[in-house]
Amino acid sequence: MSLELLVPIENEALIGMTLLPKQVLGKSIKLHTESSGLPELQGLNIAIVGLHEYRNSFFANTQYELNAFRKEFYGLYPGNWSLNIADLGDLPNGSNVEDTYFAIKEIGYHLKQMNIIPIFIGGSHDMIFPLYQIFQDFNQLVNMVSVDRSFDFSQEDELISGRSYMSRIIMDKPNVLFNYTNLGFQNYYCATEEKDLMSKLFFDSVRLGEVLDSVSISEPVLRDADIVSMDMKCLSWRATADPLKGNPNGIDSRVICALTRYAGISDRVSFLGIHELPSTPMMDQLLAQMVWYFIEGYSLRFDEYPIAVNQGFIKYSVQLSDQTMVFYKSEKSQRWWLELTNDSHLNNKTKKAALLACTEKDYESALHDHIPERWYNAVRRMN
To answer: What is the pLDDT of residue 369?
Structure first.
């Protein structure tokens, strides 16, 4: 089993731990150390796994130092959580990238079976591909959300890299990808052909400006996600505190933490990957806080998936000019869903109506005869 390949946390990351207060995360989570060995997995909620696979990375020549992240993370205080968390150490590189994929897939598959959510940290963005393969093995439709400045389809003849992994995913058989959503894309990093392909496949995308103007519009997208991956090239230089390792325009530190918190709250998210990490002291702190916010979100999950709208939900029917739309509002979480009910729009793979996460603003827009674009795309994907 590939879990046995995980190497212990390096001693460098543990230096100074004895001087930290007893309440900090480093002293309250389970650690895979040389002396203690791999922690017991039974009963874990969340597991951190470090990756060093940068052969397809934008930062291939400057690998991120995971010890620096760990020092920052271990020194943070936990929230009001009743969770079992472990740092399982690092996965060494395989002899080739495909070997690394295989190991990640095995680790992710095993942890998913145990209802443990892994956070994969480091490596290139194509490390999302083996996580997709897990859903192929389960024969389960999957929604993927990528926080990224670009769409990551193939460039020229390159089929698989940190910038082209999506091409392999959409061509791989069996195809279990139901939806791919890009959050925070920037037009000048996306080829016209990529935009056309996104439109042809009825995938969703949200521009950077929209995310920055109102980060809450990302919550329904992340609520519907099974896999969330974050390419840290999406950050502005202000977030990395290094103009050479950030962008003039990009996601700032507060927004990226809000997005990881939304991902944690989502009852569906079973994998989180944070990749393409620039090596700066600010990134070490920000990454530690992002992981903290994901765990915080997880502790606040509402346990509303799969959704049973026959209890604990208020139903709202809205008569539009050409159809009736049905919305549901949870009495527990106050969150909204939109039902896809037209007979011609039923999901042919499940033979039943589906629910699409949405916002109260979507409901208010429907009252003014406006249908959300995400609804149109979802309907077309189902046919």
So the answer is: 95
DSSP letter at 43 equals T
What are the structural domain ranges in the chain? 2-299, 313-382
Residues 6+ apart with CB under 8 A from 82: 299
Q: How far apart are CA 363 and CA 335, in angstroms?
A: 11
Please give the CATH superfamily to which domain 2-299 belongs.
Ureohydrolase domain (3.40.800.10)
Q: Which two tokens stand for residue 328?
A: 């549901």
Q: Is 351 left (phi over 0), alpha (psi -120 to 50) or beta?
A: left
Q: Which residues are 231's β-sheet partners?
A: 275
> Which residue has 């271990």 as its token pair?
74
Q: Which two tokens stand for residue 286?
A: 């920000």
Residues 6 or more apart whose CB falls under 8 angstroms from that of 106 comprise 1, 2, 3
The mean of the pLDDT values for the chain is 92
Compute how many other C-beta atoms are within 10 angstroms of the C-beta atom of residue 40: 10
How would you list the strands of the sheet with 117-121, edge to edge? 30-31, 85-91, 46-51, 117-121, 271-275, 227-231, 142-147, 177-185, 204-207
Q: Where are the beta strands (DSSP E) in 36-127?
A: 46-51, 85-91, 117-121
Q: What are phi and psi of 347, to 5 degrees?
A: -70, 115
The pTM of this model reads 0.94
Asked whether the beta carbons of 40 and 86 are under 8 A apart, the reply is: no
Q: Convert the pLDDT of each residue in 7-61 to its tens digit.
A: 999 999 999 998 999 999 999 999 999 999 999 999 999 999 999 999 988 776 6
Q: How much is the CA Rg of the chain, to the nearest whole Å?
A: 21
Q: Is the dihedral of CA 8, 117, 227, 282 positive or negative?
A: negative
Collapsed DSSP state (helix, strand, coil) of residue 375: helix
Which of 227, 218, 225 minimizes the C-alpha distance to 273?
227
pLDDT surpassing 60 at residue 344: no
Location of structure tokens 């008569």: 319
The rounded distance, in Å, linking the Cα atoms of 258 and 215 is 7
Structure tokens at 212: 């920055």
